[in-house]
Amino acid sequence: MKNLISSPSAGQNSRRDFFKKASLSGIALFVTSKFSFAARSASAGNPTLNQAVPKLAEYHLTAQSKQLPLPYAYNDLEPYVDARTMEIHYSKHHAAYTKNMNEASATTDYITKPLFQLFSEIEKYPVFLKNNAGGFYNHLLFWTIMSHSTGQEPEGNLLSAINDSFGSVAKFKEGFSNAGKKQFGSGWAWLSVNEQGKLVISSTQNQDNPLMSTTEVKGIPVLAMDVWEHAYYLQYQNRRPDYVDSFWKIVNWKEVSRRYDEALSALK
Ligand code: MN3
Q1: Which residues in 16-39 are b (16+ Cβ under 10 Å) and which e?
Q2: According to the model, what pLDDT value does residue 42 have?
Q3: Residue 186 CA to ligand 1 centre (angstroms)
Q4: In degrees rounded to 5, what are phi and psi of residue 217?
Q5: Ligand 1 center from residue 208 Cα (angstroms)
Q6: Ligand 1 mean position to 250 CA, how many Å?
Q7: Ligand 1 center–CA 84 separation, angstroms
Q8: What is the pLDDT at residue 220?
Q9: CA 199 to CA 194: how far, in whole Å?
Q10: Residue 229 Cα, ligand 1 centroid: separation in angstroms?
Q11: Distance between CA 147 and CA 149 in Å, rounded?
């Protein structure tokens, strides 16, 4: 080593070796950090959203949560959604998701965690819990964004945001409707606020939602449309597009606006 350093040519070699090693270790560090970042992202969902969602009122729902009362009567959404569908949907389907979630959570460490924390690390849990916790929350949201008071349209900040993101309310409705109509099999269409505070349309299968770490398009949902057949089949049978088009008659835009403002505040 001493001889090598004393030799000018060896000194150059030594410097070359140093730079070679440094750059290699640099690459190694870069690769390691990229991989560890990817691993963190996969296990922890979206960091920005993870910081925002604890500020949402519904964050503190837990696995021992109960169904809230419907904010209207079963027949209040007629003629767009019939009373019998609403009764079965609420008192059978949503009730079953809630019961199953509570039972499934008792066999995991989730029972002590907020629901939205579970969603942010959902890949750690059994699919049965994912499906039922998703079913519990998605319907809780869904009931609130419908209303018997028809004739509402988006207003204020929400209207501006819809125009910014989609060009117009008509184009937004077309995009959201298509997300619901084209969702293959059971699932949901969503309007969410993403980590940049922008509105995005997406769809998910089964009872997945945009808060889940396993969902591709992540965000804080502000509007949801259930396109499972149980949501419309008694009245519409195979005509899902007719159900989707009727949905616009019963959207509770005041509640969607409230959720939009809440999501933006949480992201600040
Ligand atoms: Mn449903």
Answers
A1: eeeeeeeeeeeeeeeeeeeeeeee
A2: 40
A3: 9
A4: -95, 105
A5: 12
A6: 16
A7: 14
A8: 98
A9: 6
A10: 8
A11: 5
The token duo for 37 is: 């970042």
**Rounded to two decimals, what is the model's pTM?**
0.82
- What is the predicted pLDDT for the residue at 63? 72
How much distance in Å is there from the Cα of 148 to the middle of ligand 1?
18
Position 38 scores a pLDDT of 35
- In this structure, the number of other CB atoms found within 10 A of the CB of residue 179 comes to 21
- Helices 253-267 and 156-166 cross at an angle (nearest 10°) of 80
Please give the average pLDDT of every successive group of 10 residues along the chain, which has 268 residues: 38 41 36 35 65 90 87 97 98 97 82 88 93 97 91 95 98 98 97 97 98 97 98 97 97 97 96
Concatenated DSSP letters for 117-184?
Answer: HHHHTGGGS-HHHHHHHHHHHHHHHHHHTB-S-------HHHHHHHHHHHSSHHHHHHHHHHHHHH--
Q: Which two tokens stand for residue 167?
A: 């060009």
Q: Ligand 1 centroid to 258 CA: how many Å? A: 23
Other Cβ atoms closer than 10 A to 170 = 9
